[in-house]
Amino acid sequence: MEINLIPRARRLVERLGGLPFSAWPHEILDASRRIASPPPPALPENFRRLPHDAETIARDVDYAVFNAQAYRGFLEQAGDTLDGAWLLELGPGRNFGVMLTLACMGARVAVADRFLAPWEDDYHGRFYAALRQRIDRESIGQSLAPLDAVIAARDYPSAVLMRTTAGGEDLSAFSDGQFDAVFSNAVFEHVRDHARVFAELWRLTRPGGYGSHQVDFRDHRALERPLELLLLAPKRYRRTFDEYFGECGCQLRPREMSQLFECAGFHLLTQERPRQVDEAYFAGFLPRLRASRSAYREWPAEALRDLEVRYVVRKPS
Fold first, then answer.
1. CB within 8 A of 152, min separation 6: which ones?
2. Parallel, antiparallel, or unpaired for β 205-216 and 306-314?
3. Alpha-carbon span 39 to 247, nearest angstrom
4. How crowded is residue 216: how many other Cβ atoms within 10 Å of its Cβ?
5. 132 to each of 56, 84, 117, how far by Cα in Å?
6. 286: exposed, middle or buried (C-beta count within 10 Å: 0-12, 13-18, 19+)?
């Protein structure tokens, strides 16, 4: 999308004209971030028209199969079995392929998303047909019946997949201790109230149950500048979060999220940290953070370097 910077630059100059020099650095930084960032979307990503070309379908099938097999391996390593297990995925995205693949493996499955993706024939019909072919060809599951039911209905029968259109702060559609495991992939960075979400996860996870949650802590507006969101003052951050439907990412840092899991009652089993900030970018970012109005301006540098963490948690028996 092409952005016309001239009117923005003119407004910046006009605003600076009446400001004392001491106010210029913050004003310039705030304006430059607004100019550099893409405008807020008109709709949440799950409600936008989905591409349905062969390459996209194949990539999404690969993703669904890979993650379903990874989750099965995770449960088997924990000593649990998929057969009859209740599994929940938070924020499944534009399709429910991961959970439906697990249903074909014998699990009982559910999804929750405050922006639950609606059915689109051009995309979902092709995607689930391709996923069915893959599972059948590679003998991945026990039964194709869950996908057959979805394809025939062009919808998601409740007997195959439980769904709720709700954010993680309110998962009252599910019972206490219902789930053996809860999964999410790049979801918790889009959450406003993490304490409430983790309290709900605690409630609906059975004693001895598990959670596997990958969190992407980058600024999603511009992944090549992954920490820019931290420069915003608290009030500006909250406004930006709402404007982007939470899809900009969150300011919360990995150690804060670890503490929130523990405060909810979970045991942190592992914290994998596969991605750290580029040092050249970080060297230029840190002075800007120190000069900002951010709540993170005095944080130690080492606490800001991790950009992605996979948390494995367990509810005590």
1. none
2. antiparallel
3. 12
4. 20
5. 16, 21, 20
6. middle
d(CA 65, CA 140): 9
Which tokens go with 90?
Answer: 């938070």
Contacts of 66 (CB under 8 A, 6+ apart): none
Q: What is the pLDDT of residues 112-146, one digit of tens each?
A: 999 999 999 999 999 999 999 999 999 998 999 99
73-107 in b/e form (b: 16+ CB < 10 A) is eebeebebebeebbbbbbbbbbbbbbbbbbbbbbb
Q: Are 225 and 277 in contact (CB under 8 A)?
A: no
**HEC per residue, 75-117:** HHHCCCCCCCCEEEEECCCCCCHHHHHHHHCCCEEEEECCCCC
Residue pair 90/187 in contact (Cβ under 8 Å)? The answer is yes
Query: What are the structural domain ranges in the chain?
Result: 1-36, 45-314
Residue type at 74 in one-letter notation: F
**What is the Cα–Cα distance from 119 to 38, expressed in whole angstroms?**
28
What's the length of the chain? 317
Mean of the pLDDT values across residues 267-273?
96
CA 165 to chain centroid, in Å, comes to 16
Contact 257, 215 (CB under 8 A): yes
- Written as six digits, the tokens of 253 are 């840092």
Hey, how many other C-beta atoms are within 10 angstroms of the C-beta on 192?
Answer: 14
Q: Kindly state the tokens that stand for 111.
A: 């999804």
* Number of neighbouring beta carbons within 10 Å of residue 155: 14
Tokens coding 53: 């070309």
**Domain 45-314 in CATH: superfamily?**
Vaccinia Virus protein VP39 (3.40.50.150)
pLDDT digits (tens, 9 = 90+) for 26-41: 444 444 444 456 788 8
Backbone phi and psi for residue 116, each to the nearest 5 degrees, phi listed first? -65, 125
Q: Exposed (0-12), middle (13-18) or buried (19+): which is 285, by Cβ within 10 Å?
A: buried
Mean pLDDT over 147-174 rounds to 96
How far is Cα 202 from Cα 194, in angstroms, rounded to an integer? 12
| Local structure of 300: helix, strand or coil | coil
The helix/strand/coil state of 202 is helix
